[in-house]
Amino acid sequence: MSDLTGTRSPLLGGVVPLATVQDASAADTIADGLVAGGLPVLEVALRNDYGLAAIERIAARGDVVVGAGTVLSVEQLRRSLDLGASFVVAPGLDEEVVEAALAAGVPVLPGIMTPSDVQRGIRLGLDRLKLFPAGVAGGLALIGALAPVFPGIGFMPSGGVNPANLAEYLAHPAVFAASGSWIASGERVAAGAGAVEAAAREAVAVQEAAA
User: Fold this and answer.
1) How far is residue 185's CA from residue 206's CA, in Å, rounded to a whole number?
2) Cα gap 108→111, rounded to integer Å
3) Sheet strands (E) in 9-62
4) Which of 146, 148, 177, 194 is the most buried (most CB within 10 A)?
5) Residues that are catalytic
6) Quick one: fold of 14-210?
7) Cβ(77)–Cβ(100) under 8 Å?
8) What pLDDT does 173 receive?
9) Full-model pTM
10) Other CB atoms closer than 10 Å to residue 170's CB: what's the count?
11) Chain-centre distance of CA 208, in angstroms?
């Protein structure tokens, strides 16, 4: 099974910041803040026209592990990898996207929400999956229900994770990582790299306490 140790990325664990990057200035602000805050990893959501350019710009720095999020097609996957993405995250479990990522030797986290989704992921050779949207689907209660049924499967909750519940999520033995959209939110980016840095430092502190 895949352990997220693909040829192009180190193991992902702990808190993984997620951002929809609006322009070059925002990309620099986010990357600078994450590096200064000790959390040099970023999932860039491909939700606007700048997403791919943001991946290329941040990957070129060499000091941030950057991945592509909201990947909906094999074409998006391939373009992201060509521009320097080191891992891939999808909102749902698309077999073609997963198989293309695995063939490329790249860590992939497809979104799941049901036991059937988990079983599909296992059949594809995955043992780490994104739970999305976690808050709507049941959050820790759902993870607690799935974990005994699927021992050895790790989950990354995304959607509904925030500073108030981050520690509780990370403390669960079936949670290997948590998506952090608040760290590089539009408001924080507008406030500058220092605001992103502060949020990153707080997340790292919670992560270390839960380890």
Assistant:
1) 18
2) 10
3) 14-19, 41-45
4) 177
5) 43, 130
6) TIM Barrel (3.20.20)
7) yes
8) 97
9) 0.94
10) 23
11) 18
